[in-house]
């Protein structure tokens, strides 16, 4: 009698499995090789057209920089708790020095950066106004590397390879993964028994021969001359790419349609997109690849890794610029009802505040325990949000609340409190902090407005001096409904107290 097939795992079993994989990201060694880019943003205001040409006049206001290309994959891996290494080529210039500084800030070494003195570091400069990209200026040289530079690149790759659990090939068509060099690096990884994940570029998929997994998007798959107008056509295209690259699996990211997985010997798997909002798609592919690589290193199957990558991509498109995601956000995304889309770490919030400020946005900040949210809280937060363009709510952690209020407070734990706050349209971002007061956060984020309730005088507000020192101000708002959660808790206690 034939054996009965194993039952498909239920939703909770699948979720628990994916969560265990995310918990396993910590310390996983992932080697990233590819084209390193410095992303530069020039922010300004446009109020007129040039009399010299039909072009907008941009009054410059600020400039920011970030890790791009293969370096952005590394930034995402570091944010996920993995232990990434980067191999690529830079010039002998100020942009390379800036890249090294940015890598150092996230705890990643620069020993794998090979210097080619004959070419500049690749820099993409985007001119931004009112949240829109007006122009992009690219400084690059995508010609073939001299043989001496290629040899040093292979040597740097071979040096890091033994300690890697997974190798990511991040191809931006700038020369590092040119056909001969790419084939040599893939051969070394295969000889070392390392699984390889390729984020491809261009029409020549023969150079990826021997890779474990290819991860094109639909446009990149179509660049190979394949027509993708239906699910059947997509499946045929994936089979063609598998044959060309002789790879185990093809994972196609499809934007708003999610991701499709085509693995040898298994039926295709399709996972829908779950982005709550799309704010900026910059770097979403890098976030997908990073999360997928970390998941593979943590023991995930190809389909499991694709689902986790899909979640990472969905999270970052709701953020500004080439953003990253963290394990807590992934875990929240995988378990519906947790505050996934608004919860930020301090490092993430600093980066987003920098971009928001450069774009001319007015940043509002408030803090509190927000235990047993009541009408007074909701009206307060709605009025606070009206004072600017983005409201950050710093939420006292459970440990912090216990230190301030004493047990049995908080009544609701920090995850429940954050989830309730995240459901409010007025709240844009949530930070959870351990300290009794938010002074460290105020010094790091430098909000334009600090909002508190009128239960205290302005000169009594903690952090007032910090905010005013950089030109910000304190605004006191009246409280409506329940005056305090303490009063609310006492009223509940009186009503539930047994009569004698």
Q: What do you see in this structure?
A:
- By secondary structure, the chain is of the alpha/beta class.
- The protein has two domains: 16-325, 3-Layer(aba) Sandwich (UDP-N-acetylmuramoyl-L-alanine:D-glutamate ligase), CATH 3.40.1190; 347-496, HUPs (Rossmann fold, 3-Layer(aba) Sandwich), CATH 3.40.50.620.
- The protein has helices at 11-23, 70-79, 94-105, 147-160, 179-191, 218-222, 231-245, 284-297, 302-316, 327-334, 346-358, 375-385, 398-405, 414-422, 439-445, 464-469, 485-496, and strands at 29-34, 36-49, 56-69, 83-90, 113-115, 122-129, 132-139, 166-170, 196-199, 213-214, 249-253, 259-263, 269-271, 363-368, 390-396, 429-433, 449-453, 473-477.
- The strands form three sheets. Strands 5-4-1-8-9-10-11-12-13 form a nine-stranded mixed sheet, sandwiched between helices. Strands 16-15-14-17-18 form a five-stranded parallel sheet. The protein has a four-stranded mixed sheet with strand order 3-2-6-7.
- Helix 1 (11-23) packs antiparallel against helix 10 (327-334) and helix 9 packs across helix 10.
- The longest helix is centred in the middle third of the chain and has 15 residues, at 231-245.
- The protein starts with 10 loop residues before the first helix and ends with a helix.
- The relative contact order is 0.09.
- Residues 1-8 have low confidence and may be disordered.
């Amino acid at each position: 009698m034939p054996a009965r097939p194993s039952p498909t795992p239920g939703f909770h079993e699948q979720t628990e499995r994916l969560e265990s994989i995310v918990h396993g990201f910590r310390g996983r060694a992932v080697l990233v090789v590819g084209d390193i880019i410095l992303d530069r943003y020039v922010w300004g205001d446009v109020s007129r057209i040039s009399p010299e040409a039909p072009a907008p006049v941009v009054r410059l206001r600020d400039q920011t920089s970030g890790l791009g290309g293969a370096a952005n994959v590394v930034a995402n891996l570091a944010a996920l708790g993995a232990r990434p290494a980067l191999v690529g080529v830079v010039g002998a210039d100020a942009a390379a020095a800036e890249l090294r500084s940015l890598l150092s800030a996230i705890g990643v070494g620069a020993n794998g950066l090979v210097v080619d003195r004959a070419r500049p570091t690749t820099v993409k400069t985007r001119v931004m106004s009112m949240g829109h990209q007006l122009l992009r200026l690219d400084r690059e040289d995508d010609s073939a590397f001299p043989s001496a530079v290629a040899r040093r690149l292979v040597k740097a790759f071979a040096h890091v390879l033994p300690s890697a659990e997974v190798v990511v090939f991040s191809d931006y068509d700038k020369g590092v993964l040119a056909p001969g060099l790419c084939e040599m690096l893939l051969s070394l990884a295969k000889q070392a028994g390392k699984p390889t994940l390729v984020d491809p570029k261009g029409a020549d998929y023969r150079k990826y021969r021997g890779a474990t997994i290819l991860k094109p998007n639909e446009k990149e798959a179509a660049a190979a001359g394949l027509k993708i107008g239906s699910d059947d056509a997509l499946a045929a295209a994936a089979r063609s790419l598998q044959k060309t690259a002789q790879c185990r699996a093809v994972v196609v990211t499809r934007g708003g349609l999610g991701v499709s997985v085509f693995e040898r010997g298994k039926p295709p798997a399709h996972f829908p997109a779950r982005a709550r909002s799309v704010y900026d798609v910059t770097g979403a592919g890098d976030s997908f690849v990073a999360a997928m690589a970390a998941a593979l290193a943590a023991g995930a199957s190809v389909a499991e890794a694709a689902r986790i990558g899909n979640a990472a991509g969905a999270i970052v498109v709701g953020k500004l610029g080439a953003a990253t995601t963290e394990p807590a956000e992934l875990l929240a995304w995988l378990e519906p009802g947790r505050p996934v889309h608004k919860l930020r770490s301090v490092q993430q919030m600093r980066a987003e505040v920098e971009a928001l400020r450069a774009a001319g946005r007015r940043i509002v900040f408030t803090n509190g325990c927000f235990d047993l949210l009541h009408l007074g809280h909701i009206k307060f937060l709605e009025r606070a949000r009206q004072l600017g363009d983005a409201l950050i709510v710093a939420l006292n952690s459970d440990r912090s609340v216990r230190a301030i209020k004493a047990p049995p407070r908080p009544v609701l734990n920090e995850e429940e409190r954050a989830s309730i706050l995240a459901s409010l349209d007025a709240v844009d971002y949530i930070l959870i902090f351990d300290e009794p007061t938010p002074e460290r956060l105020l010094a790091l984020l430098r909000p334009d407005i600090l909002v508190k309730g009128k239960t205290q005088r302005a000169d009594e507000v903690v952090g007032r001096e910090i905010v005013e020192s950089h030109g910000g101000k304190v605004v006191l708002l009246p409280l409506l409904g329940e005056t305090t959660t303490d009063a609310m808790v006492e009223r509940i206690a009186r009503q539930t107290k047994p009569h004698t």
